Amino acid sequence: MNNQISDLIDIGANLTHSAFKNDFEDVVTEAFTAGLSHIILTGTDFQSSAAASKLAQQRPTLFSSTAGFHPHVSEDVTTADFARLETLLANPEVVAIGETGLDFDRNYSQPEKQRQIFETHLELACTVRKPLFLHQREAHTDFYSMLCAYREYIPGGVVHCFTDSHQALRDYLDLGMYIGITGWVCDERRGHALQNIVNYIPHDRLLIETDAPYLLPRTLRPKPKSRRNEPKHLTEVLSVLAACRNEEAAWLGLTTSNNARSLFQLDAKLQKPSEDATAT
């Protein structure tokens, strides 16, 4: 690791995933050894959202969390689920609503149900006044239209794991959204388009994330034995992103961390030293 790279914030890691159940503490320790200072744990259904919130309550200088329903699970979400979600969102460690949005690529849930559940998240953001953690795959037209309808009333958000076109990027930036970059930018097979447009993201709208355990950076050398991604590999995402933008990695890393602090209102949480980095 470049010793100058420090204080990184991973804005999206699924550490409540079963892939981490056997070595969670090692994963966390290695992440902070690599230069991370904070990780936002992603909630994709009520169970993962509640688990992420609990971890963030226990170790607030290390973790924050999001809470919401991924479009893949939209078919199963009920009114009662949203009532429970709203209670969870009242907790200070829960800093964003989501992961939510539209995914017409896999359509694990019917598009109409996805739109209904996404709109309920948007309505919730208007009242809870927390930013959105957004997901969009092959659904830009509907997603953008719905986001536009609520933009005046919501406190912003991040289009997480952005992989879309230059036009989509411009649309989201015009709405004042932040853009989350993952290991997709490290993929020599399918990441070329993203590599060519990341330099159009203004410094004050750029965020980095691993989406662990998914999207292991393919540029890692030596190549890891496991395909599981971990927060410690955020440094690789940063390195490739900085190279694509022809910028210095340590400076860019601190810039993205400042952006995360701003969007998710993390300053009060991160004033304390990370003395619990290896706590159990």
Main beta sheet: strand number and arrangement?
A: 8 strands, parallel
Mean pLDDT over the full residue set: 94
For the record, the CATH architecture stands as Alpha-Beta Barrel
Number of strand elements: 8
CATH names the topology as: TIM Barrel
- Beta fraction of the residues? 15-25%
Q: Give the topology string: H per helix, E per strand.
A: EHEHEHEHEHEHEHEHH
Structural class: alpha/beta
Which CATH class?
Answer: Alpha Beta
Number of domains: 1
Give, in spatial order, the strands making up the sheet with the most strands.
Answer: 1-2-3-4-5-6-7-8
**How would you sum up the global shape?**
globular
Radius of gyration: 17 Å
Write the CATH homologous superfamily. Answer: Metal-dependent hydrolases
Identify low-pLDDT runs. Answer: 272-280
Helical amount: 25-40%
> What is the distance, rounded to the nearest whole angstrom, between the alpha carbons of the first and last residues?
25 Å
Number of helices: 9
List keywords for this structure.
TIM Barrel; 9 helices; alpha/beta; disordered C terminus; 8-stranded parallel sheet; 280 residues
Could you please describe the fold and organization of this structure?
With 280 residues, this protein is α/β, with parallel strands linked by helices. The protein has a single domain, classed as Metal-dependent hydrolases (TIM Barrel), CATH 3.20.20.140. The protein contains nine helices and eight strands. It is globular, with a radius of gyration of 17 Å. It starts with 7 loop residues before the first strand and ends in a 16-residue tail after the last helix.
